[in-house]
Amino acid sequence: MAKKQLYTLEYPVRCSPQILYEFLATPSGLGEWFADKVDERDGVFSFSWNGSVEKAQQLEHEQDKYVRYRWLTAPKDEYFEFRIEKTEITNQTILVIKDFAEKGEIKDQTQLWEYQVKELFHRLGS
């Protein structure tokens, strides 16, 4: 199996880092846009889509800055991360998503993230 590579996506968001962080780091927030249902127990998040469940451990987080998860079925060095940045000049909030995929799958994975982020923006009213 080919080694997956890290790729980064950036999306300008019209909301405060505090509000955005809640949608990225809490089960109720993630359940609004990322999965049909999200539960958390002892730092392990259970994401449900159409009856299928995937689990991810929250590895690191900093309030209103970033949160990093790792699928329990993924290699130890792979993760997906939501980072919240502010542009210096315009002070605009930017959502930075980092994820891993095989080279040939990055385009498909990017399209999946585009769909998910569109749903997030809809929930945020952004």
From TrEMBL:
Gene3D superfamilies in alphabetical order: 3.30.530.20
Every START-like domain range: 1-125
Transmembrane segments: none
Superkingdom of origin organism: Bacteria
The protein's name: ATPase
Organism: Ilyomonas limi
